[in-house]
Specification:
The protein has 329 residues and is of the alpha+beta class. Helix content is 23%, strand content 29%. The protein is built from eight helices and 20 strands. Strand 18 and strand 19 form a beta hairpin.
Length: 329
């Protein structure tokens, strides 16, 4: 098994992403069309980042990014607009726009290859997202290498990559999801409510996989060293995951905090996409108090890529400190 994976990765390294684009686009060669014009054709792989956590291998893939206007309409919706703008300005950020990035993560335990969340999938490709499969391939992982897919929750940017052209993207994987999350989104009571649109996505992408799905509750173990923690508020069954190997620890916080300044420095501020805003704020403080107190790293799905860092406790919240070489030595 190991030998075949090494051979496959070696092939990828020498041939590039041939399964994803025409070879002519991968050469990176400059082709002179005439004496006055220089045309460069090449494919740029998505950003990926790899590091070790004890004996586990961790791969973060940038599925895409999106700029949006009017930050105060998404973050700090219970605050004066000038408070949101002022905090952004204090942190050297534009006051009229913010950028959201999307970072699924793969953990290779040596026994299992576990993918946490799946990005936008085919629905996001027209906007430059849905690049998870490319990112996995750039690191030497094929879809059939994935043995488990874990869903932190069931919003579209986390479940969109489960299916491709009506078929499971990870045909050999089994699936893990929170019981409360699945029950909420598949309940017929969502019809006619603001949740109906997302429910349709769950019915299309998640429900067909239910027979291969294991449902978790708070404290359930995914595999040895990876444990689920209920962190409700963003959605009713939103989960985070504690990952430990050889005395190294990482918390996958998913959408507990969705902006490294506006959600972390002011965890009480309401966020448009949190379904239960008061509970989401309480959960943010609970999870990031733990992370700051224990001085452990976390990986947040919407943090600045590669989405890994630490939370330093401050008077009003937490300061995001990006990781550097902590896992390299």
């Amino acid at each position: 098994m190991q030998g075949s994976k090494i051979a496959r990765r070696s092939l990828l390294g020498s041939a590039g992403l041939g399964m994803l684009a025409a070879p002519a686009l991968l050469s990176g060669r400059a082709q002179a069309q005439d004496s006055s014009k220089l045309v460069i054709n090449r494919v740029t792989p998505p950003d990926i980042h790899q590091f070790k956590l004890g004996s586990f291998k961790v791969l973060v893939v940038k599925d895409g990014m999106r700029a949006s206007g009017k930050p105060g309409e998404t973050f700090g919706t219970n605050q004066p607009a000038e408070s949101v703008s002022g905090l952004l300005d204090q942190n050297f950020l534009p006051t009229d726009q913010f950028v959201n990035s999307f970072s699924p993560v793969l953990i290779d335990t040596g026994k299992d290859v576990i993918l946490f969340d799946t990005g936008f999938g085919e629905a996001g490709r027209a906007q430059g997202a849905g690049r998870l499969i490319e990112g996995l391939a750039a690191a030497g992982y094929m879809p059939d290498d994935i043995t488990m897919v874990v869903l932190t929750h069931m919003h579209g940017d986390h479940i969109g990559g489960l299916m491709d052209n009506g078929k499971p993207s990870f045909s050999k994987a089994r699936y893990i999801a929170g019981q409360a999350e699945y029950d909420f989104w598949t309940d017929g009571a969502r019809a006619g409510t603001p949740a109906e649109g997302n429910q349709k996505a769950v019915i299309a992408s998640v429900k067909p996989l239910a027979e291969k799905m294991t449902f978790l509750n708070d404290g359930s173990e995914v595999v040895s060293g990876i444990t689920a923690m209920l962190a409700a508020g963003h959605t009713p069954g939103h989960m985070v995951f504690n990952v430990e190997s050889q005395n190294k620890r990482l918390v996958l916080t998913a959408d507990t905090a969705n902006h490294y300044v506006l959600s972390l420095q002011r965890p009480d501020w309401e966020v448009k996409f949190d379904m239960d805003k008061a509970k989401a704020a309480a959960t943010r403080k609970k999870i990031f108090d733990m992370i700051a107190t224990d001085k452990v790293a976390f990986l947040g799905y919407h943090m600045p890529f590669p989405a890994v860092g630490y939370a330093e406790k401050q008077e009003t919240g937490y300061r995001f400190v990006p990781k550097t070489y902590q896992f390299d030595i």
